[in-house]
Structure formats: C-alpha cells, structure tokens
Amino acid sequence: MISRILHGGDFLNLGTNLMLCFLCGMTSGDPTTGSAFGLMTKYPLIDGHNDLALMLRILHDNRLSQVDLHNISKVATDINRLTTGHVGGQVFAAYVLCGAQAKDAVRLTLEQIDVINRMCTENPELELVTSAEGLNDTKRIACLISIEGGHSIDSSLPTLRMFYQLGVRSMALTHTCNTPWAESSSTIYDVYQRENDSLTDFGKDMVKEMNRLGMIVDLSHSSWATARAVLQISKAPVIFSHSSAHAVCNHSRNVPDDLLRELKENGGLIMVNLHSGFVACHGQANISIVADHFTHIRKVVGSESIGIGGDFDGASKFPLGLEDVSKYPALIQELMKRHWTDYELSGVLRHNFLRVFKEVEKERDRQKAKGTLPSEAQIDLTRVQNPCRLVLRRPDHQTTKMEQMYSKGHSGLVVPRSLLLQSTEKERKCVHMLLCSGGPVSSLHAYNKDFWTEIAD
C-alpha cells in the first residue's frame, strides 16, 4: 500500500480506490511496460527464424490434431506467446537434419512445409503469406516459410522451383553440413570437402535462380567464404536470418565486421540470433549482452541493416529474460534505455525486413520483364557422389530382369520400366535397400538423438 508520497513523505489521503489503482500502476516494477509495448503495438515484430515446426515433429510427429497451438508445453513458441510478444510476422523454418542429405531430405522437407502450411491455415490467428505486401498488410500473425539448408533440395533447381510454388520464400544455402555446391560454417560433418571452392559454378547458378524466382538468399550457417562469394554475385539483397556479431562473440556462426560492411553494400540484413551460445561466448547470457550485439552492429553498418531472428525452438539455451517469444518487449526496452530512436527500432522490428523482401521481389520483376527463363543448369553428378540417384533411360533386357526380380520376390514393389540403374553392384544394392526397406529414412529417434549436437554448432 502506498502511504507516503511527495513533500518529504507527508501522508496523503488519496480518497478513492481509483486514484490508488492509478498510482499502483505508475509504480509497477515491470520494466517492459509502457513504451516498448506501445512501439511494438504500432510496429509488430517480424522475426526471421523460428524452429517450432521441428519441435512439432520431434514432440508430436506432426500430428497437429493432438496439439493446442495456443499453449504448447516444452517449447518456446505458441500462439499465445507470439501474441504477448507482439510478433506480427514469423518466418518458420522447414528444417531437416543434415543426416538426410542424399537420402530422404526432400520428402522430409515437404512434410515440414506441410505442417507449417497446416499450422498457419487452420488457426484464425495466423495467416500464411507469400509476398511483402501480404506480410505488411495482414492484421493477423503472418507466417512465411523458409528452408534451412540447401541439402533439402538435393542439388536440383527444379526442386527449388517447386518449393517456391509451395510458398517457400527463403532458403539458407547450408546448415551444419556442406552441400555439393556450398560450404558450411560448421565442421560437424566432413562431407563434400573442397579447397578454394566455397561456392561452385552450380552454387552460383543456385543464387541466380533464387534471384530470378524472388526467393531470399539466407547466409546464416554458410561459411564466410561462401557468404562473400554470394555477395559478389547476388543482384538482390541477402540476409543472415539468425546470426550475431563476431566481434562481440567470436563464434564461427557469427558475422565479422568486414562481412557486415559487404552486407551493407548489398543492401542486406543481419537478423540477430538470441541463442546463448552465439551471444555470450563466455559466462551467462543476458539481455544486456544481446543488446551489445545490436549496438555493435549499428556502430559498424547502421541500424537499417539490422533485424531480429530469435532462433527459438532451434537451440537449447537462451538469455535470462529472453526465454521465449513472449519476451521480445524486454529486448526492445533495453535498446530504448540505450537511446535507440523509435525510427531505428521500427526498422529493426519490421521495416528493414520488409525493405529487403520488396527489393528481392523487384529483382524478380526486373528479370521477368527482361524475359529471363528458368535456369536449366544441372550439377555434375561426380560432385553429388550419390549412388542412389537414378538415371532416366529407355528400358532394356537388364531392366526387365530387375522388374521381374522385385515384382516376384520383394513385397510387390516394381522398378519402373523407365528407370535404369547404373550397372555397378553398389548401385544395385542401393536400389534394393530403397525398395525393400522404404528408403533410408531419418527417423524420429534420429531427430531426438542428433538434433542438439547439430544445431549447437
């Protein structure tokens, strides 16, 4: 109860319960009330990266009928907390483990796109959008779909185009593994090792095709060499969807100052990651340390190059006070204390990402006006080194024998007549495994076993 106020502590008879309630509200100890909430009401956050879809797979096997998306346990994201955190737009990642590369990554990615699509079309608070205009204009929480890792497209430009048709508007070129055409910042996997070839000719074709489509190129998880190569050729702005400042925390997933300057010249965006391991290389992560990343990047390239990509549900530890998506106002309040202006923060919250997205769409429209056709570039299969790839040829006597073998003795499965395997014994064993076991799948158990090791790098 407030008993002393003003004039050296003289007792005031406040007289009415209304005045008491007013004064109690003014003296609330909640540091996030007031200006941060007000600003975020006017400029709801567009967050660049969230892995709720992955957690729905791990915890619920994508069975949305068994989940109340308004209140989900064991995760950092649900509809109620997105609303509390003043999130107006969320980029949801369709992510599959690198262990699925050269196996069933495409199928798994399709299933993750499906769960995001269902989540965002079956709940009235959410809306699936595919354009900057739709992202800006919706009064609901907008959902954008991204793919996290080029291994999801199996080195195929037609697959990339079909993902775009399904609503994907951003793709990270790598995750924690190299692809046959781009290099990761991680050393967890030793696949597709190359020297002085961080972005191959096919990788350059990939970037150009993403520019033509109007798909945002995401460099988070890419090596610095790959990022620099992309910045040299991309005609549209690019993003780091969830990376922080290397000068503040010297992790390989973060971005050094010279690369930040190249990003600024490109007109691109770094969306600061909140994962404790990327913001505090030593000691306990807290809101102040996260704000240090924002302040440093602003000093190097200005506030117009900054956004927020929280990485919630894609990492295991987050700073004190930023444990889930409902806590974003606390971060904005800290930046306000550091004298960030409303104009700067409106950019960080949404306008900077909208600018980049619009520029990506403008480049798409420019190429369409010039009559640029879809790329027909194909990767050299010696780079892919995947014995399970099939080569389309006319059937011959050998194909007929294989058909008979599988149709008679292997669960009724038949090799299509139009498919002829390369004739090595290794390849025949591969098709046998694919047909008889249903393919080398990345099981739910594998997700639980390997997930935290992979994303922590």
The percentage helix is 40-55%
Content-based structural category: alpha/beta
CATH class of the largest domain: Alpha Beta
Order of helices and strands: HHEHHEHEHEHEHEHEHEHHEHHHEHEHH
Distance separating the two termini: 51 Å
Mean pLDDT: 85
Query: What is the alpha-carbon Rg in Å?
Result: 25 Å
Shape, per Cα inertia axes: globular
What are the segments in which pLDDT stays under 50 over at least 5 consecutive residues?
1-33, 405-429, 431-452
Number of DSSP-assigned strands: 11
CATH-defined superfamily of the largest domain: Metal-dependent hydrolases
Proportion of beta-strand residues: 5-15%
Written account of the structure:
- GO terms for molecular function: metal ion binding; metallodipeptidase activity.
- Homodimer; disulfide-linked.
- Residues 1-29 form the signal peptide.
- Its EC number is 3.4.13.19.
- Helices cover 43% and strands 10% of the residues.
- Mean pLDDT is 85; it is low at 1-33, 405-429 and 431-452.
- The longest helix is centred in the last third of the chain and has 29 residues, at 342-370.
- Strands 1, 2, 3, 4, 5 and 6 form a 6-stranded parallel β-sheet that branches. A 3-stranded parallel β-sheet has the order 7-8-9. It has a two-stranded antiparallel sheet with strand order 10-11.
- The N and C termini lie far apart (51 Å).
- By secondary structure, the chain is an alpha/beta fold.
- The protein is built from 18 helices and 11 strands.
- It folds into 2 domains: 44-370, TIM Barrel (Alpha-Beta Barrel); 389-439, no CATH class.
